[in-house]
Amino acid sequence: MHKWRFFINEDWRGVSTNINKNIFSKVADTISSVPEKVEKTSNDYNNIIQISKKFYNTSHLPQDPSPRSPKQQREFRDIIDYKRDAFRHILANTWFASQGGFSDTAMRLAGQTVEFAGAVSNFIKGRGFQSDKEMDLKNNELGLRLSKKILPGTDLNTTAKEVKRLIDRGNYFVEYKGEILLYRDLDKKRPPPQHLKELLKI
């Protein structure tokens, strides 16, 4: 996880999310020649973003990082950079592969394109040519695997609940100090929250 991401608030994160929405819409346009399908895909992805914010919200935490305690800082980071991010990747792949009419190959192409565009965006902003590509692509694969278990005609909210169960069990991938591991194993690697005090000094 890149250190610059530790301190973002919901408004700042929204800029990044909007960029991803635009990228995803363009990818959908590339892999589908039916305008109605492109529009539905874009609308579905917007709904996925809203569901992710509903399931994993930070309204109970200070949005400005300065007043956050070390425990709150960890919770905020885990919600936005781990749980919500993984939920969005897994649900998008589960939904579009099971109900959206996209093949696994098309979804992998979309995932690779989004990650490349994210790296370019970071480079332009002076953060280096980087993204959380490996983590995100592994979570995309979890979504494709789960899609095989979703029955035809299952609605988005029901599918989202299946993904939430996976997230709440910690069975998704995160990046910590260059290592990709399951979230459920993360606390074996990282120090207790009180050791994060230095990170709170901006």
- N-to-C span: 18 Å
Biggest sheet record: 2 strands, antiparallel
Count structural domains.
1
- Based on the structure, what is the oligomeric state of the protein chains? single chain
Counting DSSP H or I runs of 4 or more residues, the number of helices is: 6
- Got a strand count? 2
User: What's the gyration radius in Å?
Assistant: 17 Å
Q: Which H/E pattern describes the elements?
A: HHHHHHEE
Can you give the helix content as a percent range?
55-70%
Task: Give the strand content.
Answer: under 5%
User: Which term fits the overall shape?
Assistant: globular
Alpha-beta content class? mainly alpha
Strand order of the largest sheet: 1-2
Q: How would you describe what is shown here?
A:
It contains six helices and two strands. It has helices spanning 10-31, 35-55, 70-98, 104-124, 133-147, 156-168, and strands at residues 173-176, 179-182. The chain has a two-stranded antiparallel sheet. Helix 1 packs antiparallel against helix 2. The longest helix has 29 residues, at 70-98. The mean pLDDT is 80.
